[in-house]
Write a structure and sequence with these properties.
- The protein has 158 residues and is an alpha+beta fold.
- It has a single domain, classed as Pantoate--beta-alanine Ligase, Chain: A,domain 2 (2-Layer Sandwich), CATH 3.30.1300.
- It is 43% helix and 16% strand.
- Helix 1 packs antiparallel against helix 2.
- The longest helix has 46 residues.
- The termini are far apart.
Length: 158
C-alpha cells in the first residue's frame, strides 16, 4: 500500500502558475522614475501649505497691529495721540511679529481721521505689507503679481 503525499488536494511537486501578467510586471528602475516625477509635486504642495499658513499668520499680525494702533489712537483723550505715534505703534507691532524670511519689513500705515477727533467720530487705521514668502510666493511675484496683505480697523473716539 502506497501513501499519498498530497494535502488539501494539491499533489506534491506541482506549482501554481507563477508567471506574472504583463500589467503587473515592473521594469527595473521604474520606481526611481516614478519618484523623480512625483517628488517635486509633493515638495511644491508641502511648501505651498507652509507658505499659506505663514501668510495667514502674517495677515493676523497685520489685523492685530491695526487694532492695537487704532485702540491707542482712540483711547487717549487728552492729549490726542498724533498720527506719527499711531503709525509707530502699528509698525513696531508688525516688525516684532511678522515672519519676513529675513527681508526688510516694509509696512505701510494709512490713518484716516477725516471726520475729526471729537467724541463719537471714527479713526481708521490700515496696515499693508508686501508678502514675499519663500518659494511659492516668490514664484507668483515673478509671474507679475505681488501679494499685498492688508488689514483695516475702524474705531470711534471716546
Amino acid at each position: 500500500m502506497q501513501k499519498s503525499h498530497s494535502s488539501f488536494g494539491v499533489t506534491r511537486g506541482t506549482r501554481m502558475n507563477s508567471k506574472r501578467s504583463a500589467s503587473t510586471a515592473r521594469l527595473p528602475g521604474s520606481a526611481i522614475i516614478e519618484s523623480v516625477l512625483v517628488l517635486p509635486v509633493l515638495c511644491l504642495l508641502l511648501f505651498g501649505i507652509v507658505e499659506l499658513a505663514i501668510g495667514i499668520y502674517d495677515q493676523t499680525v497685520l489685523a492685530n497691529a491695526s487694532r492695537e494702533a487704532a485702540l491707542v489712537g482712540v483711547a487717549h483723550s487728552a492729549p490726542r495721540v498724533t498720527p506719527t505715534q499711531i503709525t509707530s505703534i502699528a509698525r513696531n507691532y508688525a516688525s516684532d511679529y511678522l515672519i519676513t524670511f529675513g527681508a526688510p519689513s516694509s509696512v505701510a500705515v494709512d490713518i484716516d481721521r477725516s471726520s475729526g477727533t471729537a467724541s463719537d467720530n471714527s479713526l481708521k487705521v490700515t496696515v499693508s505689507y508686501a508678502y514675499s514668502g519663500l518659494a511659492v510666493a516668490k514664484l507668483i511675484n515673478m509671474l507679475g503679481g505681488s501679494l499685498v496683505l492688508s488689514a483695516a480697523t475702524t474705531m470711534e473716539y471716546e
